[in-house]
Structure formats: C-alpha cells, structure tokens
Amino acid sequence: MLNLNLPRYLPSADELPDSDDAPVDNELQELIPGLLKAILLILWAERMDWFFGVDMGIYYHPDESAIVPDGFLSLGVERFYDEELRPSYVLWDEKVVPIFVLEVVSPKYRKEYSDKLNDYAALGVLYYVIYSSQRRRKPRLEVHKLVNGKYELQTGNPVWLPEIGLGIGCERGNYCGVTREWMYWYDEQGQRYPTPQEQIKQAQQQAQLAQEQAQLAQQQAQQEAQRAQQEAQRAQQLAERLRALGIDPDNLI
C-alpha cells in the first residue's frame, strides 16, 4: 500500500480532515473501541511504540477520502507526536499500516462485510475484526486474518493474535454502568485483562485488605505487649512474696 504512485508534494495530517464528519449510528461504535483503548492505556502504559485510534481517518492517498474505522491499532509508531496529538492517521507520514482494524456493525449496515473488507485487504491490514450485536445465528464477533492477500475467518473466542501479543474476544461484563456483552483483550491463556474500573476496584480491595491486615497485626502486637506486661507483673508479685518469706529471688537463679 505504501508503494502507491503518490504525488511528489503531500499534505500533512494537520491539513486533512480528521474524520468523515459522519455521526455514529450507535453508541457502541464509540464505547467498544474506547474500552479496548482504555485497557491498552493501562496494560501498555510503559510502551510508547503503539497507537490506537477511535473514529479517526486513515489517509492512504491525498486525492482519496479517508477510511474511518471505528477503531484501529498500529504498532511500531510514536504513541504521541506532541501535546496537540494526532488529528488523523496519514500513511505516507506514519509509514506503518494498522495491524488491527475494528468495525462495530450498527442497525444501519455500512458494508462491513463487503467493500470495507476489500478496502482493508488492499491496505494490507493484518487483522480485520467485525462485531455485530444484532446477529443471532452467526457469531457476533468475527476475526479475519489476511493470508496471501485474502481474509480468512479465525475460529474461537477469544482469538489469539500472536503478531500483537494479545487475544481479542467478547463476553458479558459491565462498562460505563451498562451490563451487556463487551469486547476485551485477553492473554495467551485466555484470561481477560481487567478494565480500568475493575483495576481501580481491585486496587481499593487490596488497599482495604492491607489496612485490615495492618490493623490485625497492630492488635496482635498490642495483645503480645499486654501478655508480656502481665508476665512481668506476675514475676514481680512472685518475687515480692518470696522476699516476704525471707527468700532472696536472685539466689534462686
């Protein structure tokens, strides 16, 4: 894709529209990729070689309109340029094709299974993921991998993506106060990575447990100190009784 016959003088990302200005048809088209990005921001917090775009235009030619997926992931690129961040993703500047693209199907069909599939294959996107909550007889999550220029449907839930080092899948959970099926990242053993809210809750539980353990340890220390004081008092009382009987307790040692 990057070897297209491009014009000599090319516009920068700042000179191009940052999206197609089309409103989303369903709130899930924002929330699902937003959740995946939020998990990555914690999971890959120390890494600066990745970028996850949400509803952002991907430009492959200055004379063509941008392709605007619901979400996409690129590896081997700068996570941040500067404080203004990316207005769009321009392939002739980035020189890296997204490795992962996500489309969330809304009630208004947008050719996710036809034109977009062909467009992403032409771009060279390795993984094209489609999620449709409206499906009943077919899997709601489809993971397509580009093999010899054509997409092949992968099986399983989650599906391991070795080139990314993550799995992608869906299951019921709670996000933004809504309990339903959401998409998540998984490890190689199929264990789901927690959401930011879940991590906060886990951290709070761990802090509460640590506090309870510290309080218990303090109580135990106080009890030990009390027992030691009681033993010292009993020893002193015994010594006084012995002296009263004319016995020097020091001579008994």
UniProtKB/TrEMBL annotation:
Entry superkingdom: Bacteria
Higher taxonomy: Bacteria, Bacillati, Cyanobacteriota, Cyanophyceae, Nostocales
Residues forming coiled coils: 200-245
Entry annotated with the keyword Flavoprotein: no
Keywords recorded for this protein, A-Z: Coiled coil, Endonuclease, Hydrolase, Nuclease
InterPro entries, per the entry: Nuclease_put_TT1808 (IPR012296), Restrct_endonuc-II-like (IPR011335), Uma2 (IPR008538)
Pfam families membership: Uma2 (PF05685)
GO molecular function, one term: endonuclease activity
Domain Putative restriction endonuclease: 34-156
Protein name per UniProt: Uma2 family endonuclease
